[in-house]
Amino acid sequence: MDGKALSKKIRDNIKEEVKILKQKGIIPGLAVILVGEDPASRIYVNSKKKACEEAGMFSEEYTLESGVSEQIIKELIQELNKCEYIHGILLQLPLPEHLNEKKLLEEISPEKDVDGFHPISAGKLFLGQDSFVSCTPAGVMEILKEYNIPIEGKECVIIGRSNIVGKPQAHLLLKENGTITICHSKTKNLAEVCKRADILIAAVGKSELIKGDMIKPGAVVIDVGINRDPETKKLKGDVEYNSAVEKAGYITPVPGGVGPMTIAMLLKNTLKACKAISF
After folding, report:
1. 73 CB contacts (<8 Å, ≥6 apart)?
2. From the candidates 22, 24, 38, 48, which is the catalytic residue?
C-alpha cells in the first residue's frame, strides 16, 4: 500500500482548497515549536514546514534552547492561542526531560490542536464526536479507505498502546465496527494474538518485531514503526518486511507507507482548524 502516492493525492486536494481560501483573503497558518536540536525532531519539523509551503499554507517556526523554562513555552503557546493568523499549533515531541509534556500540550487551545493530543480532542474521539484526530492513526484510516479494506466485523490487532497512535487507533477502528485487541509489553503469546488479525497494526517502536510467521495469510499489515538500523543507518519498520510480504494480502512499506500520511493529515487538520476559526 503506497502511502507516498496517497499522501500526494491528499496534499494536492488541500492545495486546491487553500487556493480558494486565499481568494477570500484567508491563509491557513501553522506554528511549530521546537525545543532543543534533536536531529530527528529537526528533520520532522523541516518536512512539516516544506509540506506547508507546498500546500500554500503559512508556517512559522519557534526554536527554543533545550534548557528553556516551562513558563516561557507556556507564555509562547498562550500568545499563539490568541494570534489571528495562526490556526494550528504544534509542539514537537519529545521534549527535554525537565519539561512536563502533558501540562504543556494542555495549554494549546483545543481549537488549534492540530496534533489531536489535547484531552478535549481525545475525549471527543472517545465519545465518537467530531474532533482533531492524532495524525498517524488518521493516516492509517485513510490508507485503509483508499484500498477499500473492510473494517466492520474484522479482527483488528494493534501492537502498542501509546496516546499518540495505539489508543486513538483503537477508537477509530471501533467507530468502524472493527473488533479490537490492543497488545503491549505485558501481552502473553503475542504471536498467537497476531495470527488472529485480519488487520494488524504495528506501532510499538521495536525494529522488525513482527515476523512473517506471526501473520495470518492474506491479512492487512500496517507498519507504523520507524526505526533506524544502527549499522546500515537505513529505516526499518516494526514488521520484518521480507518475511511478512510473503504472507500479507496488503502491507505498507517503511519508508513510503504511513510516514508520508502523517504529514498529509497534519495539513488536513490545519485546513480544518482554519475553516472552523475563520467561518
Report:
1. 33, 35, 64, 91, 99, 104, 107
2. 48
**Going by C-beta distance under 8 Å and a sequence separation of 6 or more, which residues neighbour residue 189?**
none
Distance of CA 263 to the CA centre of its chain: 7
| pLDDT recorded at residue 43 | 87
223 classed as catalytic: no
User: Among this protein's residues, is 48 annotated catalytic?
Assistant: yes
Q: Which DSSP category does 118 fall into?
A: S
In tens, the pLDDT along 105-127 reads 999 999 999 999 999 999 999 99
- Could you tell me the three cell numbers for 31? 506554528
Same domain, 193 and 224: yes
Same domain, 94 and 190: no
State the residue range of the domain holding 213. Answer: 135-259
Catalytic residue among 112, 113, 115, 198: 115
The C-alpha cell at 279 is 467561518
Closest by CA position to 155, among listed 77, 89, 240, 219:
219
Residue 72 contacts residue 64 (beta carbons within 8 Å): yes
Q: Residue 242 — pLDDT band, cuts 50, 70, 90? A: very high
Let me know if residue 44 belongs to a domain: yes
Q: Please answer whether residues 227 and 237 qualify as being in contact, where contact means their C-beta atoms are separated by less than 8 angstroms.
A: yes
Tell me if residue 198 is catalytic. no
Quick one: angle between helices 166-175 and 135-146, nearest 10? 40
279 occurs within a structural domain: no
For residues 143 and 253, membership in a common domain is answered with yes
For the chain, the domain total comes to 2
Q: Residue 213 to residues 188, 210, 246, 269: CA-CA distances in angstroms?
A: 17, 8, 10, 37
